[in-house]
Amino acid sequence: MTKFPSDRFVWLIFPAVILIAVAAAVLLPRLKKEDPLDKAISRYQLPEKYTRADLETMLVTMAKDPEFAFHFQVLDGEKRQEATEEMFALLLTYPNREMVHQALVEQQEKVLAQSTLFYSLDFPPEYVTGPSDFPSLDAAFWQFIEEEFKLVVLGVYYKTNLDRNFVFAWQQTAVLAAEKFEKIWRNRQQYLAGLRQ
Predict the structure, then answer these.
(1) Measured between alpha carbons, how far is 12 from 187 in angstroms, rounded to an integer?
(2) Where are the domains of the chain?
(3) Global pTM value
């Protein structure tokens, strides 16, 4: 003969099962590890009908991010404004994913061309102490970083709002040009710091 649990036993166990189910529903989502990419992306995501102010807020967030700090350290407000105006004009048309991707490809080609030019230029040591004495070199110096900054802004928008799996494929020439730029810029900062002492 099979024994069935008494009604009293069922009434004792039922509240415990309910309590465990509620605790699991509350605690399990908290125990799941948050994806660092989700956290990073959420900082830059824009509302569906974003405005210029939203894009400017995205730049403010970028300025606080160590990954992009160098661009904000190098480019003053006027140069950043010049560099972002073209990107903002495109983004404020609410382009679709393909249009932004095409703009990214075109901007990456510009950066590669600028990188090739910049890397091939010979910056004499005197450039550090008097860049205005070398107007064509100085123009190339600033154009390189402005074009790179445009690409970074467009890339951040694209990755965080349209394609989270997007990854930049930086060409070796662009990496070498960026290292050269940073070295020249840091030498200039050291020279200027010496003048202030």
Answers:
(1) 77
(2) 35-196
(3) 0.79
